[in-house]
Design goal:
With 781 residues, the protein is an alpha/beta fold. 32% of the residues lie in helices and 20% in strands. The longest helix is centred in the last third of the chain and has 22 residues, at 759-780.
């Protein structure tokens, strides 16, 4: 297959994250070329402030080495800018007169610092703070001069000012507003921040508007519009950024403040996409790492033709990266449009916390001095969780005896939002690779490797892991004794190589035992069946008939089960079964625990005849499948309707027959709310209530575990759709022999809800399930 030519304009963080994701999903799909205007490999621009502050070296902020580009067959042109896009001929031209053809084009040109249009802004010693060269120039100037002025009291300005202080300069921060970081903090938190920074040696000039940079060839000071002035040998402008859209605009691509894109990051021109700070999505532009990385992931999946919902926007959060100061802001922090807040202020300990609610849901928060609840609050905002009064009171535990935030966090809790790294992933990496430092964790998992805001939490987690109280062991198990690969590693390799036979898997992945064992025999067949729609499994199981309709018994006879969807039958079908049993001398007829009829003692030569003569045919007796749906009807004085439950069980049975799953699934249905048994302790349980059906997931009678309430469906049709799409998502993401409950615990019920609550996702999963069922039926015929 001929590779498509993919060209990326911009060697920055957002564009290259998209390339990373493409290499994961479809490494052989594209011939990739990258143009970067800076003379560097891809580096972490967000960490420039830590370089200036002295806590990081310049060489440590490189994300990819030249060797990485070469290893992944990526052509990189450093220090070369694209000057024109011929959208009709699909050719780009650079400032070195190079022409390159493309099939797909990604524009990731980022943004540039906004330089105030004041007199003297072109003097020597006036800088933005955006590139490695800016950082190097500041360090150079600090060795000769001592007075610095930073224009801008926002996040970037304060981080730059802290760095210049560390370089030994006297720093004054000039800000047009009456308080610092007004876009992220309220007045109370801002005042505490200012007081702390003043203790560190920073000084502030608030409500000041710059009129002129004074001096000769180089800057000597700043004059304001009230005629006052200050001396300054270095002036850093940190007054915001402007998206780089000139290239797109002159090429005929629709722009506003930035390049306008839809949910799949598509521009107004076919096959041209934009991602990162230069992209405008639903009227918003983003400059923080997490949203830009999310855009990159969405675009990569789209380019690789992987079904996804697209990018829906992000809840913004900010964490100040200044040594010794903990500041965090997320979502809406102002009390407007009916919003109200819970506020805790402890001036003695320098702690301030504010959580903003609207209609019972958290919509924003500001934390100063103690940011340990930051991740919990951020997740609650993303989940749009309704909180009871008691939960609101418990949002902030008392400082006295409060446990470290990471100890109570579940393994699925996100530590690093930028890269989506969970607590469990970090623990697994530490245990598997014997990691002992935060830098080793960063190199292995990428946690704290982007904005750096989660570094304190990663540090706390590592300290916890190394402490005596730590007892959260994540075992590293191989898939079976025939291979050195874990199940996740095995699945990744199978997806990459797209194997067609079990023997291919064993040979190419160097299994220790080429004959295999019972575990890998079934598991490899299962995964090949899931990954390859054309795979025909030469089934090896306990069942001896070609289409798995009978099971061999110890005396040489067989047992069969007539197909009875939902356990609902009638007199005519029962008479038919009785006649068949009498005709072929079947004396033993059993009622099974899942409400079906089993004929025992069938001779082998009669099997084809019985299969033809039973009205609905015989049930397929697969291993690892959705077992017959069991229905429980009211008892005693209960007079609730039972017909909806029977109809629902009948439809679920029809939708799910012939479908194989990672592990057996038991579905139970209760006809009314008076019945509790078996519903919450089944893999999936449905209970009739006044407004529809409660759907529970993840229960287990064997482990005495109750399932969680997953969804409330208003109609039978909705209940079928939710249940079936849940099972299909489990089929596609569950591990072999992993129960529904274990899968939910591993993946997280919040994530599963996020997937299934989207109508488009459910439609996609239902189509996949229908296709799999049709394929199974075709195979049997």
């Amino acid at each position: 297959m001929t590779k498509q030519k993919l060209v990326l304009i911009g060697n920055g963080m957002a564009g290259m994250r998209c390339i990373e994701e493409i290499l994961i999903h479809s490494p052989d799909c594209f011939d990739i070329t990258v143009f970067g205007s800076e003379p560097h490999v891809n580096y972490n621009r967000i960490l420039l402030s830590t370089v200036l502050q002295g806590s990081t070296k310049l060489e440590d902020i490189n994300i990819h080495s030249l060797a990485w580009y070469k290893e992944n067959n990526i052509t990189l042109f450093k220090g070369e800018s694209v000057t024109h896009i011929d959208t009709k001929r699909k050719i780009i031209t650079t400032d070195k007169n190079r022409e390159t053809r493309y099939d797909k084009l990604i524009i990731a040109t980022g943004s540039s610092p906004y330089m105030l249009p004041v007199k003297g802004s072109d003097k020597e010693g006036v800088l933005g703070f955006r590139t490695i060269e800016d950082c190097q120039e500041m360090i150079k100037i600090s060795k000769q001069y001592k007075k610095a002025a930073v224009i801008g009291g926002g996040l970037l300005g304060l981080e730059a000012a802290r760095g210049l202080l560390n370089l030994g300069m006297d720093v004054q921060v000039i800000h047009h507003s009456g308080f610092l970081m007004e876009r992220q903090l309220d007045r109370a938190a801002s005042a505490m921040l200012r007081e702390e920074l003043e203790k560190q040696g920073m000084s502030f000039l608030l409500n000041k508007h710059t009129d002129e940079i004074i001096g000769g060839n180089r800057a000597e000071g700043v004059r304001f519009n009230d005629s006052s002035k200050i001396a300054a040998d270095l002036v850093v402008m940190a007054t915001g950024v402007r998206p780089n859209v000139n290239l797109a605009k002159k090429s005929g691509i629709e722009t506003n403040r930035a390049i306008i894109v839809n949910d799949y990051l598509e521009t107004s021109i076919p096959d041209i996409y934009a991602v990162g700070e230069c992209a405008e999505h639903r009227g918003m532009t983003y400059g923080l790492v997490a949203p830009l990385y999310e855009q990159g992931k969405v675009l990569a999946r789209h380019l690789c033709q992987i079904k996804n919902d697209g990018y829906r926007g992000s809840v913004l959060s900010t964490q100040l990266k200044i040594s010794g100061i903990d500041v965090y802001s997320v979502g809406e922090f102002k009390e407007n449009q009916g919003a109200k807040a819970i506020t805790i202020s402890n001036m003695l300990d320098g702690i301030y916390k504010k959580v903003v609610f609207r209609e019972g849901k958290i919509v924003g928060a500001v934390l100063f001095g103690d940011t340990s609840e930051a991740i919990k609050l951020s997740q609650m905002i993303n989940e749009k969780k309704d909180l009871s009064q008691a939960e609101k009171v418990q949002l902030f535990p008392s400082q006295h005896g409060k446990e470290n935030a990471v100890t109570s966090m579940p393994l699925t809790g996100i530590i690093c939002n930028c890269n989506g790294v969970t607590k469990g992933a970090i623990i697994e990496a530490v245990q598997k690779n014997d990691l002992t430092t935060v830098d080793e964790i960063k190199n292995c998992t990428k946690a704290s490797g982007s904005c750096g805001g989660c570094k304190p939490l990663v540090t706390d987690l590592l300290t916890y892991i190394q402490s005596d109280e730590f007892d959260e062991i994540i075992e590293q198990k191989t898939f079976c004794t025939c291979t050195h690969l874990s199940e996740d590693e095995l699945v990744r390799e199978m997806q990459q190589y797209q194997f067609e036979t079990v023997q291919q898997v064993r040979e190419i992945l160097k299994f220790k035992d080429m004959k295999g064992c019972s575990l890998c025999e079934g598991g490899l067949h299962y995964y090949l069946d899931m990954m390859n729609p054309h795979y025909e499994n030469n089934r090896h199981s306990l069942f001896t008939t070609e289409n798995e309709q009978a099971v061999l018994l110890h005396d040489g006879t067989y047992a069969v089960v007539p197909q009875i969807h939902g356990g609902l039958t009638n007199v005519q079908e029962l008479r038919n079964i009785a006649n068949v049993a009498e005709r072929y001398n079947i004396s033993n007829i059993r009622l099974t625990s899942d409400q079906r009829i089993q004929l025992i003692g069938v001779k082998k030569e009669y099997l084809p005849l019985i299969s033809e003569e039973i009205d609905r045919g015989l049930q397929q007796l697969y291993e690892r499948t959705v077992k017959n749906v069991s229905v429980y009807i009211g008892k005693g004085t209960c007079i609730c309707q039972y017909e909806p439950a029977l109809a629902l069980s009948n439809e679920l049975d029809k939708q799910l027959e012939y479908v194989k799953t990672p592990c057996d699934i038991k579905i139970s249905i209760a006809s009314c709310s008076h019945i509790a048994e078996n519903v919450t302790t089944s893999d999936i349980g449905l209970r009739r209530i006044d407004r529809g059906w409660e759907i529970y997931a993840g229960g287990s009678s064997a482990e005495a575990r109750s399932g969680e309430l997953f969804y409330v469906a208003e109609t039978n049709e909705e209940a079928v759709e939710i249940s079936c799409s849940l099972i299909q998502y489990y089929r596609e993401t569950g591990n072999y022999l992993e129960t529904v409950g274990s899968w939910i615990e591993r993946v997280g019920i919040v994530h599963i809800r996020e997937v299934l609550f989207e109508v488009d996702n459910r439609e996609y999963l239902m189509k996949r399930l229908s296709s799999e069922r049709s394929r199974a039926i075709t195979y049997l015929l």
